[in-house]
Each structure stands twice: as C-alpha cells, then as structure tokens.
User: Fold MFS transporter from Arthrobacter ginkgonis.
Amino acid sequence: MDAGARKPRPGPAAAEGGPGTLVDAEIEEPPAPEPIRVGSRWQLLYLGTCLVLIGLNLRTVFSSFSAVLPEVTAQAALPGWSVVVLTTVPVTLLGVFAPLAPALARRFGAERVLLAAMAVLTAGLLLRPAELGLPGPGAGQGAGHLPALLAGTAACGAAIALCNVLLPGLVKRDFPHRMGLMGGLYTTAICASAALGAGFTYPVYAATGEWTRALWFWAVPAAVVLLLFLPAALRQPRVRRQAVKEGVSVWRSPVAWQVTVFMVLQAMMSFSVFAWLAPILRERGVDGATAGLIVSVSIVLQMLGSLLAPALAARLRDQRGINTVVALMTGGGFALSIFGPLDLVWVWAGLLGLGQGSLTAVALTLIMLRTRDGHTAAQLSGMMQGVGYGVGSTGTLLVGQLHQATGSFTAAGILFLAVGLLAACFGYRAGRNRFVGEGPL
Assistant:
C-alpha cells in the first residue's frame, strides 16, 4: 500500500467485536484522529497474502527440529543438556521479546519491525544447521554444530515473538471488515506451519541423508516471504506515536490472572507437543516418516479445532464447559500418546490435536470475551503473551528433564495429566461471565 493507504483504527466499540476480532499490535496506541484514505483492493489483497504467508512460517522452527531430533542428537554429538535448551529456549524467548513489540512498533512502525523480524527469522534458520566450531577431543562428527544451533534457535525465537504480537494488529488495522476471514486464515496458517514442519522435515532428511539440509530447507519459504513483504513494508510511513496510560490495570485484576494462568497451562502443553511428540513416537518404535505424518495429522486437526472453537465459545452464555472439556482432551490425549496402547496411537494423536487446537483458540478468544474495550483487550493480550509464553516454556523443559532423569517419557505423561487437570480448573474459572476490572465471584 502507498503512504496514505492506511485505514483508520477501529475505536473501542469496534474492538469489542466477536471472536474473530484481533488485538492491536501497538498495545497502548489510541485510534487515529481522522479517517485515512483506503488503499486499492489489490493492495489489500497483496498485504493480506503476505500476512498469511508470514503466519505460515511461525511454527516450522519448533516442529522441524523435533522431527529429526534423534538424527541431530546422534550425528551432531549433542550433550543431553543442549537438547533441553534447544527445545525450551525458543518458547522462552516468545515471552521475553513479546513485551518489546509494541514499543518497537510505536517507534519504527509495525510493518518495518515485522519486516526486520522476518529477516532475523530467515537468518536464524540459515544459521541453525551451520558448523561454527571444531569438534573437541573424542567428540563425534558434527559436534561443532552446537554453537550455531543455539544461536540460530535463539534468533528464531526472538523473531517469532515479535511476529506473534504484530501480525494480529496489522490484520485488525487494515482489514476491519474482514477480520473474521483474516483471523481464520492467520490462525490456520500458524497451525499449518507446524504441520508442514512435522510432515516434510524427515522426508527431506531421508532424500538428502543430511539433517542440516532438512533444517536449511525451512529458510527458503521464510526468505521468499521476506522478499514479498519488503515492498509493502517499506512503503509505509514512519510515524512515532504516543502511548496511552489510562484504563484498567490488568496486572491487578483477578479475572486477568485467571485467563493468563489458563494461557500458561495451554502453552505448556502446546509447545511440548511441538517439541516432543515426534521424539515420543520415535522412542515408542514408530519410524521417522510415520511419526512425522502422525504429528502432521494431529496438527491438521488443530486447525479444525481452532476454526470451530471460537465461534462456539462466543455463542455460549459462558465458556466454563468448553474450556474444561478441551483442556481435558489435550492433557489426556498427550498422556495417552505416551503410555496408551500403540495400536490406537492415531486416535490419541487425533484427540490431542483436536483438543489442543480448540484449547489455544478459546484461550485467545477470552481476550475479547473477558474485556469491555479494545484498550483493555490489548493490555490483556500483552500480559497473556508475555507471561503465557515465558512461563509456558517450562513445559518443554520439564519434559526434557524428566526424560533425562527417568530414561522414558512415562513421567511426562503423568505430568501432563496433572497440567490438563489444572488447565481445566483455571479454564472453568476464566470461563465465567466476568470482565477484567471486576472482582472475583
């Protein structure tokens, strides 16, 4: 779009919309004071396509690494601690960098920050399989890959954190009359990103015989999207904005904390699935290609859940029932994938996928359902993403530590039964028809 092609930001009334309403990237920014000329239909179509394609690159980092984890561990001679770090750090950084996104967007413009984030993501994906150091004495071939794996993975996590926060705001700003459609496409793209990483990484490895090429493969779509988004991002004017300080403090709201803890528990399960489901299946005797296919099918079902659950949640008087059910489905499906009968592994993975997609979607939908205005909704979104991803990353860490300590994933299955039960309890509390700023019932 050209420099004058921005739409006006919807005010609080618009931001209170339905389940498809998305939260602004620039968390405390007031609406534009005057209407601004709208860009052409083709410009908006081009921008919308770029945003969806960016979403299609935001989960391959997690699922691609786990798809070839046994091969990377063996051929790169990775120590046990590094595997835990590599599966935990990117999720932790989602929480660390999420609060920085609004300030960066206010200073430099959301499009430019998003463009820079995609550049960092592409660089991280290129760096991740590189060999920067020399193997030490007695180390296996490829031991020098560890520094690049750590640095590249950290860069990817930081970049994805910024994209997570900025993308919904751009969708809300430029597609106020198509937020339901664009929100669905964006959510589906993220789920599809995880499915693609899980399903195609191992076949690339099998075809090339090198895990480095299997991981390098995912830098290609990121680079293509970076180039596609470049013209749209550079056309946007650089405008500095002033933050607004009034309104409800979500950090002192019991309702906000109930929603946030619900988000933390769902993040613990969701990112543990991305990081560990394929290795769990591989350890149970499933071959690499089949394990990747099972994970992909599970994630496809996540897409179905993420499309259907928000609409159902918004039509209900409150969300206590749906929150409880999808939390138990997710925790139970994850646990059964670990110690349930292997003959029914497709059933357990399907239960997990449908539950997990629905759980993530209803947790995000609560941002709108538990707030009365757009400013409070944006504050709650920032709180949920910062705390949710930061603390939620402990799930992948705990799974790795339990596996190292016990030599199996059985203890992790018990852990996620407990996490699922806790998520059901907090989901029940968060699902009551209350609003941020009101006291508890």
Summary: The chain has 18 helices and no strands.
